[in-house]
Amino acid sequence: MARISTYPIDGVVSLTDILVGSEAPNPGGLTKNYQISDILALVSSSLADYADNAAAVTAGLAVGALYRTAGDVKVVI
After folding, report:
1. Which of 2, 9, 30, 76 has the most CB atoms in a 10 Å sphere around its CB?
2. Where are the beta strands (DSSP E) in the chain?
3. How many CB atoms lie within 10 A of CB 3?
4. Pairing relation of β-strands 18-22 and 31-35?
């Protein structure tokens, strides 16, 4: 594999693009490919659900924190 800096930058990112990562928690984790859409689904599924921004703030989420409402990902403002 060449140095990462030698690869061109893709100016158009899509959900089907693939990122390289390591599987954890195995020591020296195996190198794997991860699709961007799968990573986003993992992040979204791990977020707490709140009715709205006010409810998220009342629950103690800090400004800039992520949460979900009706399946959409939101940012506390």
Report:
1. 76
2. 18-22, 31-35, 66-69, 72-75
3. 6
4. antiparallel
Element of type H or E holding 40 = helix 36-45
The residue among 54, 5, 16, 38 whose CA lies nearest residue 67 is 54
pTM: 0.68
From CA 27, how far away is CA 69, in angstroms rounded? 37
Q: Phi, psi at residue 55, to the nearest 5°?
A: -65, -35
For the chain, give the number of residues: 77
Q: Smallest Cα–Cα separation from 19: which of 38, 5, 42? A: 38
Provide the residue-wise pLDDT of the chain in tens; the chain has 77 residues.
789 899 999 999 999 999 988 888 777 778 899 999 999 888 888 889 899 899 999 999 999 998 988 878 888 87
